[in-house]
Design brief:
Strand content: 15-25%
Distance between the termini: 18 Å
Number of strands: 10
Strand order of the largest sheet: 1-2-3-6-7-10
Radius of gyration: 18 Å
Number of helices: 7
Largest sheet: 6 strands, parallel
Structural class: alpha/beta
Order of helices and strands: EHHEHEEEHEHEHEEEH
Length: 235
């Protein structure tokens, strides 16, 4: 397990959502990536490489670059894995996290018919087992942290003992820290529930990735509690 102690974790990271797929919610994408007819996989990967080059070149001394992927971020894991291997970057020279729970279904289209989803949520055990194998294939050698993508009560993942056991087994077998990302009006309640979950006498979660608004920092006290309950492994 190569994950550094909390005091040595990166303070900022690069999210690959807008770099791993041609269509995303960002404004002004045409100015960077060109119009929807000029975003082939090779062009998007070249842009991702440029941003990763900058990340590695500008990471402060004593820290390591942090890259955050997800199965639903298009080809983000493939792009990152290719980049790290091509540049002979060792696992201890990068901090890498990814997420499972959503499947990218847009088939590399920038836009879809009205109402058609770009990603589909599925927090079942079968989907976890499928997606963890996909993550292993692309970046498994580099992964430090694997998270449930947008955990909610409604998806059932917070009370599913089978998925909790599968996540715990992933940590035991692969040495990856296990976390969850939250982004909903009930995110504080989800985090508090996450702190309670144990498998075989061990806390299941090591970290949380939380949507945080500095102008309305309602989750501040909950994050402090997570920090204390998880011994500082929170993001």
């Amino acid at each position: 397990m190569k994950m550094p102690p909390p005091s040595q974790l990166p303070n900022l990271g690069l999210g690959m959502a807008a770099l791993g797929r041609p269509g995303y919610i960002n404004l002004g994408r045409d100015a960077i990536f060109g119009n929807s007819s000029s975003r082939p996989i090779e062009a998007m990967q070249s842009q991702a490489d440029l941003v990763l080059d900058s990340l590695f070149a500008n990471t402060s001394k004593g820290s390591v670059p942090w890259v955050d992927c997800a199965r639903s971020y298009g080809l983000s894991e493939q792009f990152v894995g290719d980049y790290l291997k091509r540049n002979n970057i060792k696992p201890n020279e990068v901090y890498c996290s990814s997420k499972w729970g959503y499947t990218y279904v847009a088939d590399w289209n920038v836009s879809l018919d009205r109402g058609a989803p770009h990603e589909v949520k599925d927090h079942s055990v079968s989907n976890f087992l499928k997606q963890v194998e996909e993550t292993k294939h692309f970046i498994g050698h580099y992964v430090d942290l694997y998270q449930i993508h947008s955990a909610t009560f409604e998806s059932g993942v917070m009370d599913d003992a089978d998925i909790h056991k599968a996540l715990h087994q992933c940590r035991e077998n692969l040495g990856w820290k296990i976390g969850l990302s939250v982004s909903s009006p009930k995110q504080d309640e989800v985090m508090r529930r996450a702190m309670e979950i144990e498998v075989d006498g061990h806390k299941l979660f090591d970290s949380v990735q939380c949507t945080y608004n500095v102008f309305g920092a309602t989750s501040c006290s909950c994050l402090v509690g997570c920090s204390q309950g998880w011994h500082g492994h929170h993001y």
